[in-house]
Amino acid sequence: STNDNYGIFLDNFAKVTSTGTGSSAATITLDGTGGAGTLNNYGVAIAQTTTTVSSVDGDILITGQGGAGTGNYNFGILLELGATVTSNGTTADAANVTLDGTGGIGLAANYGVMLRDAGTSLSSAHGNILVTGQGGSGTAAYSHGVVLHSGAVVHSTGSGVNAASITLDGIGGMGNSLSSGVWLFGANTAVNSIDG
To answer: Which end of the chain is more exposed for a tag (fewer CB within 10 A), N or C?
Structure first.
């Protein structure tokens, strides 16, 4: 179609959950590639406060490749409107959370990973959080690698030597200006940690 060609779309009460414990717990893997169109060709999109991806001890891996558009907003991974990705584990086996997004091709705003809106979060107590983003290729501006915007938050809530670490690793893509590796913007947008 012209717009909104998603590889994977979780929305409106969708839940992906692993409840297993220990080193053999089931992992969660989401791997999506956006299609070709004008706007909003996302590899993986997760939206709404009622939409969750969570695991106790099985690692979470979300990989997204933005599609090829003639317009804007070809994101590798998008979390928005209060969607959450959470590691609930409380031991050394706790789920690690990895997001790996690559922006697509288009006019502008081809982000690798985009988290936006109040309530949208990545959270873990003991499993490490890694967000890797490679900006895409645009003829205009804003091919950022990793973007947190408008109140989105990344939390490490654990304490002690096994507390979750947070790594944001971004590389700006090709464009005529303003393609940052990592960009945080807007009130209440934050990366928070206790001991990680």
So the answer is: N
